[in-house]
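Objective 1b of the project was to move from sequence-level analysis to a structural picture of ligand recognition. The entry below was assembled by the postdoctoral researcher (A.K.) and checked by the PI before modelling. It contains the amino acid sequence of the target and the SMILES of the bound compound, pyridoxal-5'-phosphate.
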Amino acid sequence: MTNALPAPAVAGTENPLAPATLTPDATESGSNRGIKSGAKGGTTALSPPDPGNALADVRAALDAAARQAGRDPRHVTLIAVSKTQPADRVRAMFAAGCRDFGENYLDEAVAKQDALADLPITWHYIGAIQSNKTRPLAARFHWVHTVAREKIARRLSEQLPPGRTLDICLQVNIDRDPRKAGVDPAGTADLLQAVQALPGLQVRGLMTLLDAHAPPAEGYGRLARLFETLRPFATGPWDTLSMGMSGDCAAAVAAGATHVRIGTALFGARQVPGA
Ligand SMILES: Cc1ncc(COP(=O)(O)O)c(C=O)c1O
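Corresponding predicted holo structure:
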């Protein structure tokens, strides 16, 4: 069994060659591993995949990976990574049955959230956090997966609208890649203790993005072991391992992922701005 999900089925295209504007997004490490050679045609296609088919394929692959690992598939939440996708495609994916969406860019996310305000979507923020933009994050998202500094957590806590809570994952730079964001594994216990003391924040667990070339079973296994090591320090719910993308989510589920973040396998290749 490979770690890659099948690439989404694509309506109305027989030519697998991608136009220049539909190159897979390779701007973030690990975002395009192994996803392009799926059973139903490449993701480099002219028209986007049918949301219902793509969602069913991805869900089936996650369920199979969970069962193979002896896990209950209901314990794996699928977050559809909708960055760069227009609101109408998010709406279509919602209509197909997806309830959790992940966004990386705040301004883009805010516009989409406004356009989709009629839908009961659970919004996950999975991008880099600028400290001057924490207020809308605190007000508009249900989850923030990318907290790696106490300063950011403090701002989120202070800026939470009254009566709201925010679910948090600590982003760990599990392979200590100097190009990547995330707290060093050795600093995670201190960060956990600082963040969970802040009002309104519920620290649920850990998140990571693996290096593009790292063997996923190893990296995700390391995050899962760190998660267990930290369990005695957690004062709140400690139930979330946010790890796995289109190209490696089966390995992530096998290692214990409770939330996988899938973009390409659901929506097709992302359009790179300016390409
Ligand atoms: C943090 C994060 N998780 C998951 C993904 C989804 O990656 P993929 O499109 O390979 O599924 C992305 C994509 O940019 C991402 O930035």
